[in-house]
Every structure is written in structure tokens, then in C-alpha cells.
């Protein structure tokens, strides 16, 4: 099968307006008639709401942008085991394999265990606080596990 069209829609509009722009592009290009179709989202709730409102009924499969997940997992592994260490890389590889295989519960258990070892971040922790980095990764995976 040869790809005929690659379509990208980008806008600075609100998420509601953007959803309608996406729906219009899908209709204009008759993408709903494709045999295989997917919607790749970075994990933001409003992106999934656009998929849910405009694309799910057309059979678009939801796919999490894997690069965002990679960044969260790598950051969490470095925060948990020390940036640049072999232990961090091994932890990252393990979590990455779990994510790739769809072993979400095992991945969450590992991330939460790392978070519990480090403890909860203080309320106004800086973005690079290892505790915040790990717990942010837990939240990202939890919010996008489906």
C-alpha cells in the first residue's frame, strides 16, 4: 500500500475551535473512509477530548505520542537512579520495554516504587526536583494508560 496523503492541522485556536478544524479536514479529505486510521496525541486532556468528540465514531484509533512518554520515563529513571549512571539507563530500558509491551500496571508499580523511595515533592518543588520528576511521570502514565 502506498501512502497518498499526509495531512497535518495546526492552529493557535482554542481546543474547541481546533477540534472543529480537525473534523473539517477529516471530512474534506474523506479520511473517515480510510481502512486504517489513527489519532496521535501528546497526552493533553483536550487532545483526547477532540479525538473523543470528532474521531472515535469514525474508527480512529487513539495512539499516545511515544516520544513524550520516552521523555517522562528517561527523566524519571535519571531522577530515581542518578543522571548518567548505568543504573538509570537499566531502569529506563526496563520501563521502556514495559511501556512498549503494554505492561502499564507493571510500569506504574515501578514508577510508584521509585517515587515512594524518593518521597513526595514539597508543594512548590522546582521542575527539576527528582521527586517531582518521578511523580510527574507517574501522573503522565496514569492519565494516559488507556
The percent of residues in helical segments reads 55-70%
Q: Figure out the total of helices.
A: 6
Strand content: 5-15%
Determine the mean pLDDT. 93
Order of helices and strands: HEHEHHHH
Name the structural class: mainly alpha
End-to-end separation in angstroms reads 29 Å
| Sheet of most strands | 2 strands, parallel
Strand order of the largest sheet: 1-2
Oligomer: single chain
Shape, per Cα inertia axes: elongated
Rg of Cα set: 18 Å
Uncertain spans, ≥5 residues at pLDDT below 50? none
Describe the protein.
- By secondary structure, this protein is mainly alpha-helical.
- Helices cover 59% and strands 5% of the residues.
- The chain contains 6 helices and 2 strands; from the N terminus they run αβαβαααα.
- The chain has a two-stranded parallel sheet with strand order 1-2.
- The model has no long low-confidence stretch (mean pLDDT 93).
